[in-house]
Automatic annotation (TrEMBL):
Gene3D superfamilies: Tetracycline Repressor, domain 2 (1.10.357.10)
Residues of the DNA-binding region: 29-48
Keyword DNA-binding tagged: yes
Assigned keywords, A-Z: DNA-binding, Transcription, Transcription regulation
Pfam families reported in the protein's UniProt record: TetR_C_14, TetR_N
Name of the protein this chain belongs to: TetR family transcriptional regulator
PANTHER family: HTH-TYPE TRANSCRIPTIONAL REGULATOR RUTR, MYCOFACTOCIN BIOSYNTHESIS TRANSCRIPTIONAL REGULATOR MFTR-RELATED
InterPro entries for this protein: DNA-bd_HTH_TetR-type_CS, Homeodomain-like_sf, HTH-type_TetR-like_transc_reg, HTH_TetR, MftR_C
Organism: Amycolatopsis halotolerans
Residue stretches making up the HTH tetR-type domain: 6-66
Length: 187
């Protein structure tokens, strides 16, 4: 057996999601995850700090990625349109995760600890987007409001996309969620 398995991280992630779904997040152990994946605890530690990290690994990159996408949106776009363009661009970040996203959401919904971690992640994204919108000229108050609305549009679009990824692409889901929001705001 080779010393390095290029698919180890995904095998661990898949095994963890299966166990979290079958037994609950709190009841699944790293030992069970590694056994199901046919890997060692040392291999697990190479990729993840703990079992929670299986669900959130890489999420620390999301705030900077979203803020950069806002910064790089067409300078002629007003702040909210720049944010929507950034959300569409961010869809590429999640293309590889969409197949397990609905299962991941269900696991997170089952655990208050994981729900808190998800809220913390989204708050960090929102704060990073606020700063990027301010750099584009939005006032502090407007940047906060737009970032919070943008985060909600993102969550809605991602949830719908991950529930039925074959039906449409992420960009379409962002546009549809934004249009739905606009329809609710106009008399």
């Amino acid at each position: 057996m080779p010393r390095w398995d290029p698919e180890a991280k995904e095998r661990l992630r898949a095994a963890a999601l299966e166990l979290f779904t079958e037994h609950g997040y709190e009841n699944a152990t790293v030992t069970q995850i590694t056994a199901r994946a046919g890997l060692t605890r040392r291999t697990f530690s190479r990729y993840f700090a703990d079992k929670r990290d299986v669900l959130f690994a890489g999420s620390e990159q999301l705030p900077d990625a979203m803020a950069d996408a806002v910064r790089h949106a067409d300078p002629a776009l007003p702040p909210f349109q720049a944010l929507l363009a950034a959300l569409v661009a961010a869809g590429d970040l999640f293309a590889g995760l969409v197949s397990q996203a609905a299962q991941r959401r269900a696991v997170i919904a089952s655990s208050p600890e994981l729900q808190e971690r998800e809220r913390t992640k989204l708050a960090a994204v929102t704060e990073a987007v606020v700063e990027a919108l301010r750099e584009r000229g939005a006032t502090e108050s407007s940047a906060k409001m737009l970032a919070q609305v943008g985060t909600a549009v993102f969550q809605t679009a991602f949830e719908r996309w991950s529930d039925q990824p074959a039906d449409t692409d992420f960009a379409t889901q962002v546009q549809e969620a934004a249009a739905e929001l606009a329809a609710h705001l106009t008399p």
